[in-house]
Amino acid sequence: MDMQSSISKQKDIGTNDVIFSEVQNVMTKLEAAEGSSIFFIDKCVYMAFRYLGLLKSLFENKKEIIGHFMLSETIDYLPADQLIYFVSPDLDNLRSLVVHILSYTKRFPSAVPHIYFVPHKPLIVEQVLDEEYKLFQAFPKLKLEELDVDMFFLEANRMSMEVPKAFYRLYASGDITPLTWAARGILKLQATRYGAIPCIRGKGEQAAQVVRMLRGLQNEVGKQFLTEIAPEIDTLLILDRSLDFVTPLLTQLTYEGLLDELYGINACEVCFPFSISESAHVGDGVELTNRDKVFAELRDKNFSSVGTCLYQKSVWVKQNYEKRKDVQQLKELKEFIKVLPEMQEYHQRVGMHTSIATEVGRVTQDFNFGKRIEMEHNLIQQNNVKDVFEYIEDLVFRKEPLPSVLRILCLYSMINGLKLKVYESIKESMMLVYGIPQIMSVFFNLERCGLLAVADGRPTVVPNYSHVRKVFQTWCQHLNEEQPNDIAYTYSGYAPPLARLVDSLIGNPRSWGSGNSLVDQLPGPKEELTSHIDLPTASKGSWYL
């Protein structure tokens, strides 16, 4: 679908209503065809649909819909006339998609497959399915379409493209498709929801390319699409992940961060391997958003202060329940009964998060967890680096999970560098423990991404950590944990340099073009797109992507 048509279609629709409308259009088409349908959906899209309530409102309690399942599930016992897929156009996953289609149609030959790519259908995907897998030859009625959904609004101030492999595609495969999607999404947000953004800035190779793509798209569709809505955002800041590889390699230490580390948060939902209450079951999904008032207060706190906070809340709940004993007049009783449901809900949430925090606490109090944090802090302070490498070797010899080992090895590489002799030694050890094919493949991809490299003196796009640490003051020795006033509180002493950068740019926006500001201390180009549109401004502040 061309950009102008997409914008025109979504112009008068609200945020998540766009998604509902797009999926509803698909359902209407399917209802026009005779027969039953079964849906298989990529995990990331499935989780977003479930969180937004689309599965319940559009897929359930309809006679013509046999069921909806994640793509990873093999359902070969439910016959349907139409086999519908909502999937990401990921070349690496096309084989499993084709296998899934062939497996189902082998069991039910009359089923006609339809594939909807989210958010768009690249030509290369169609070519691979046709020329390599001969899918059109096997299924003459096969339809390839797209579900034009660029962004999922998960919370009021938070949205996601739900493209989990975007980093791999950009840095390992060299596929710039996610950048195109980002540019399209930003343009559509301006045209349909937030109005023209007067100033859009990008720092880093990929971010600068998004800004250039956005400039081209705006010239293509014309300014008329950006002049009907009063601007709500004055500056959009787009930053490359490559500007700071260190921070995502560190263990997150906030309450929300640890839940993501230990259990994985997908589309604001987490499933725990334990029961969080007497009425709950193991594996039940729990929504984690600001609609949960307790979670809203806990999510950004360092986990070390979560226990105290929950205790204070439980005392507050108890004291409020005790107030019922002091009720003497009918008016007071009515007031108490009025707030009772909300108080009971709050009490339930406090109990739930207390159960969760107790389980998380068992992990954080474990010796191995503490040792990991100690080694990470040694690295980011560049102290006792030799001990850190010995720790990594010990992880390998104990055959700890490979992702855990690779994460701290990449962190070591980013901060300290890996000399050739050391690099070859650890690679050989890991091949002996984890297998040659797996380690060869993993090291190849990590090197292509710039996460793992031999320190041979050649120039690199990865920032020099020693310089970044000094200029951005990434380590804070003295923290006020009672009344935290520094972002370093979230990582128990470490301040992400991009947080420092954003703070600096918000405080002094003109420093962007000065040539000697913090933004110029990081490698990579910077790009700026300004829109001069005569409309009353109702700016809400900067956005950071």
From TrEMBL:
Gene3D superfamilies linked: 1.25.40.850, 3.40.50.1910, 3.40.50.2060, Syntaxin Binding Protein 1, Chain A, domain 2
InterPro entries, sorted: Sec-1-like_dom1 (IPR043154), Sec-1-like_dom3a (IPR043127), Sec1-like (IPR001619), Sec1-like_dom2 (IPR027482), Sec1-like_sf (IPR036045), VPS33_dom3b (IPR043155)
Pfam family membership, one: Sec1
Gene Ontology biological process terms from the UniProt entry: vesicle-mediated transport
Family to which this protein belongs: Belongs to the STXBP/unc-18/SEC1 family.
Protein name: Vacuolar protein sorting-like protein
Organism: Strigomonas culicis
